[in-house]
Amino acid sequence: MLQGPVALVSGHGNRCLAASGRIDLAMTTETCAQGRAPEVLALDPELLLAWFDANVRDLPWRRPECTPWGVLASEVMLQQTPVARVEPVWREWMARWPRPSALAAASQAEVVRAWGKLGYPRRALRLHAAATAIAEKHGDVVPADVDTLLALPGIGAYTARAVAAFAYGRRCPVVDTNVRRVVARAVQGAGDAGPPATNRDLADVQALLPAEENRAARYSAALMELGQVVCTARSPRCADCPVVDRCAWHRAGRPAYQGPTRPTQKFAGTDRQVRGLLLDVLRGSSGPVERPALDAVWADAGQRDRCLDSLLVDGLIEQTDDGRFALPGEG
Ligand code: SF4
Residues 199, 152: contact at Cβ < 8 Å? Predict the structure, then answer.
């Protein structure tokens, strides 16, 4: 029996989470009050794993021959970036830098250039820093346990657990936006997960994991896959969902989400866009560039200067003694 915030869509007396006030479960008042229906797990491992086995996308970092290093690189690249954009870059990186020590031996400029248009380029430097630590302190082998992974530079709570689970088959909660959304809907009956709360989110997913390690790791991958391809944010395909009959939110008639929301991230006109344009100039140059080449990419001088400063602070670019700008190490 699973512990914690158990995924009940029907249940007994004090096990009725709807009655706890914490969540709005898809449970009829009659069923809840009578308490006669058997407990049913909304995100039942049997259902989810059977669906996953039949529907798993064939992605290169999921293949048996993929190394833990490949898994780590994929997880860093996939944060906030779609699979279709990541896959070609990941393949290039794995061909060029098949081991952490290979990436560690590359310059920061090579790494930032090879990151291409994946966005959030600080991830490239973080991956480089993690590769350096793995090469120097861990014999060029990606660590398997969460605490050691967390001690690597640039590796956060999500990535550490994703690597432990997906590269080494460990039982640990892997929680990203997709997983939070699936749990919020299927288990908690809410249309959206709302703002993250790391400890609570981890505990919620931990409680759902099967006991056996490898099974738990596949379950984590299945949860994430369900959120990515079926239980999507804007258009959940409930008719294709393996847990549609048990999903609390669906059973409740998919009520509109009433809780707090995160601001939607736009791109056009943001500092992210300007930083990307400035970096593009440097990626396209084999050496330092003059200031006018950067000034040409964005008309708003204040925003442009702010973005240039932030790139310098982040170590993504550097300034030469004669005032030109370059990728790190190329000045
Ligand atoms: S796809 Fe629909 S039925 Fe499946 S978990 Fe999401 S909201 Fe529930």
Answer: no
Residue 325: phi and psi, rounded to 5, are: -125, 145
Query: CB neighbours (10 Å) of residue 149?
Result: 26
The residue ranges of DSSP E strands in 87-133, in sequence order, are none
- How far CA 318 is from CA of 108, 121, 309, in Å, comes to 11, 15, 10
CA 51 to chain centre: 21
Residues 260/194, Cβ–Cβ less than 8 Å: yes
Burial class of residue 87 in the structure, from the number of CB atoms within 10 Å of its CB (0-12 exposed, 13-18 middle, 19+ buried): middle
Q: If you measure from the C-alpha of residue 180 to the centroid of ligand 1, how many angstroms do you get, rounded to a whole number?
A: 12
Q: Where are the alpha helices (DSSP H) in 56-97?
A: 68-78, 83-96
Tell me if 315 sits within 8 A of 302, measured CB to CB: no
Crossing angle between the packed helical segments 68-78 and 122-137, to the nearest 10 degrees: 160
Give long-range contacts, CB 8 A cutoff, 24+ apart: 118-122: 118/77, 118/81, 118/85, 118/86, 118/89, 119/80, 119/81, 119/272, 119/276, 120/79, 120/80, 120/81, 120/272, 121/275, 121/276, 121/279, 121/316, 122/314, 122/316
The domain locations on the chain are 271-326
Give residues with Cβ within 8 angstroms of 251, minimum separation 6: 9, 26, 27, 189
Q: Which atom, in ligand 1's list, is nearest to the CA of 181?
A: 6
Q: Which of 51, 50, 14 is nearest to 33 (CA)?
A: 14
Report the amino acid identity of residue 129. A
CA of 226 to the centre of ligand 1 (A): 9
Among 85, 138, 72, CA closest to 115: 85
pLDDT tens digits, one per residue of 151-179: 999 999 999 999 999 999 999 999 999 99
Ligand 1 pocket (Cβ < 6 Å) reads 182, 185-186, 230-231, 236-238, 241, 243-244, 247, 249-250
Q: Which pLDDT tens digit goes with each residue over 284-302?
A: 998 999 999 999 999 999 9
Mean model confidence pLDDT for the chain: 87
> Which residue has tokens 């479960």?
25
Chain Cα centroid distance, residue 27: 31
